[in-house]
Amino acid sequence: MRAIGLAGVAVNLVLAAILSGIAGRPGSFPNPPEPIPRGLALGVLYALPAVIGAVGAMHERRSLLAAAAVLCAIGSLLAFSGVTLIFLVPAVVLAAATGAGAPPSAKRRVGWRAVVALTLVAVAVVIATLRLGVFVLPALALLVLGLGIGHGTQRSRPSRPMTSRLVEVAAAVLIVVLLVGAGVTLLSMTETRCWTAERGPTGVVYRDVPAGEHQTIHLGPGNLAGGCESGALTGSGAAIASVLGLAAVGLALVTGGPGEQSIPPTLRRRQHAAREGSAQGETLNRGAKE
User: Fold this and answer.
1) In this predicted model, what pLDDT tens digit does every residue of 3-21 receive, in sequence order?
2) CB neighbours of 247 closer than 8 A, spacing ≥ 6?
3) Quick check: 71 and 52 in contact, CB under 8 A?
4) What are the residues whose beta carbons fall under 8 Å from the beta carbon of 204, sequence distance 6 or more?
5) Measured distance between the N- and C-terminal CA atoms of the chain, rounded to whole angstroms
6) What distance in Å separates the CA atoms of residue 104 and residue 116, rounded to the nearest whole number?
7) Which stretches does DSSP call E strand in the chain?
8) pTM
9) CA angle 189, 191, 192 (to 5 degrees)
10) How far apart are CA 226 and CA 146, in angstroms?
């Protein structure tokens, strides 16, 4: 679970850095610099699921790994151009980590079957993509997410009390809500920004100007260029999104802790033997009293 989860986290971080570089490419003159850099904001937003996944992987919390997988899947649908579909890769890897954790002997028994199954799935995905288009991938990824998360939930049933599992699931759902809210806030609290460019002592200087009717501006004799751009990120939107993101990370850290498999096997066997010995002792004492 831990190794697969950390692999998904690494892939997520790399893809978030790539997306940040794509979205943050500087525009050609006369486009002005953005007050809130969109590339940086998107990079941080898409890296937050990796933070959640890292906490889940290190503490072996399936609920946090599942939350990170769901967040990556949701983020993959952001751009209509399809550029964010790459985040289906870490979503699937994190979902696989959620369902991982089989004993080594079982892994050896089903190893060749897993290879064959993955090969068949890869061929089916390629054929479906060629026939139906690239946007069939989110549906396939959601199917894999459901299978992986369901498998992980089934694995965790025997070893965790019901109350503890319900609390973790509720925390994971809240983390997803908080980070989705952060993304919606960041990308919806935007404004139209009008500007002019003029030559200054050290180069081109940009100034924000109020928009006129129908978002028009009037250029003076000293202005080199000007224009209006809609959808500019705002400081208030970024601040609220930051608060929601930090709240989600904080909740993940609180939810994290010694996971269901973090106790070494030797210590688990000793604890199990001690519990069995205690139960046998109670049985003998009860028989002696009778």
Assistant:
1) 888 988 999 999 999 999 9
2) 178
3) yes
4) 29, 30, 197, 198, 224
5) 48
6) 19
7) 190-200, 203-208, 223-233
8) 0.70
9) 160
10) 50
